[in-house]
Design a protein that fits this description.
The chain has helices at residues 2-22, 115-132, 250-254, 363-366, 370-383, 398-403, 409-413, 422-433, and strands at 30-39, 50-53, 56-60, 66-72, 76-80, 87-90, 97-100, 138-148, 151-163, 169-180, 190-192, 215-216, 227-236, 239-248, 258-267, 273-285, 297-299, 309-320, 327-339, 349-361. The protein is of the alpha+beta class and 442 residues long. The strands form four sheets. Strands 8, 9, 10, 12, 13, 14, 15, 16, 18, 19 and 20 form an eleven-stranded mixed beta sheet that branches. Strands 3-2-5-6 form a four-stranded antiparallel beta sheet, with no helix packed on it. A hairpin with a 5-residue loop joins strand 15 (258-267) and strand 16. The longest helix is centred in the first third of the chain and has 21 residues, at 2-22. The two termini are 39 Å apart.
Length: 442
Amino acid sequence: MRGKACWAGRVRAAVLLLLLCLCSFGPAGAQRFTATVVDAGSRETLPFASVYVNGRTATITNLEGAFSIECDSADVLRISYVGYKTAYVRADRMGHVVALSANETLLQEVVVVPIAPMINKITKETLRQLRNYSHKKSEFYYRQTAFSDSTCYEFAESFLTGCPAVTLSKLRLLTGRYAGLQPDSLNFYNYFGNFYTFSQVEVAANYVNPRTIDDVVPLFRNYDKYYDVYYHVIAEDDGRVFVIRFEPKPESLEKNYSMLAATLYVDEKTLHLRRIVGEGRNYWIVTRQKTEGFAPILGKYEKYVKNRILTSTHFDVHLNDTRGFSEVRSVYVEDVHQEYGVDSLMPPKTVTTRSLLFNLGTEKEARKRNIFQRIGDFLKEQTQVRQKGESLNFNNKLHEKIDSQGYDPEFWNKNEIVRRTPIEQEVLELFQQKNLFGLMEE
């Protein structure tokens, strides 16, 4: 039996090595193209725009509006962004900048739809999707960085699986890598192990009136008691999109409700969500600090506890409905707060944590794509033993889950998925030079 097991292990290792070698090559004739997507009028960059090749979402632009993609030179890329006209451009004629033109905003007198009944319909449709499509699954790529003032001290990447109907749920870790700088007498760092939960942006709820322990979200029955609502409508080639702003009322915030201030982009015909952008109000975090020496500060986001810190959280969620429901395609989250070190006499540090999540599609869809197929094969081989044991919940720390799996640098060096910003690339290379991946300890 032992001989057979060793033989099977050598075969598995050989197959993995072959897959990893293949990862460095794209499809026949493929080249790498890079560009930045901008607003045609202001020339401002458009982060998180979707880039399609042959009808499939191949990647998205990063925080600086840039993307990189492998495809044939004759392939036509479709680049889209909510509120803008879709651009179609052949890869070898694309250039380094792609400009998207904003859709027309309709005059208020042209919009004759009463907004209150419209919001009620959107709420019912959104809750229906949450009930009926919560079992639909996708695979995701996730990246997280953290800064103390201008110093990046944390970098994480992972592949997840979960359910993307309206909001992310039932997340499970497939594989990942994690690295962080160690605090010392001059530098104080916080590590938020469950920051990925902030990507699970919820906008609809079944309650009639929220309790003080509930997060107040825009889409529920008595929303008008807690929010002021403003809206306008933009015209698209195939219909109209309602842009509805939910602004928390001052009296609600004074009651210490944690509230989502959000702008929802909603398709008028289907009532499906297209984009959710906004910020958290009265959001708090607590860090669980180690007081001995300068060990890493391992924390997580919580509410309603002592010693909590007020934080500023912004998010940007893009969705599409190619599967018949509002499916999360990407989520960007940025959290900023002030943090004091062990020595209270030292000035506070501004801690900024960012994350980006990108939907790779269903497992079947992912396995059809060139580089995604090889990633899927690799992940299936690596995770077949622990498919049921890697679920993520609010109390989990991502770095602990990742550390328990080990680290394979060859796999990660060949897979970028979403183009890194220059600072992310610089930090990644620095952490690799210092061999920090796979060494994080509490």
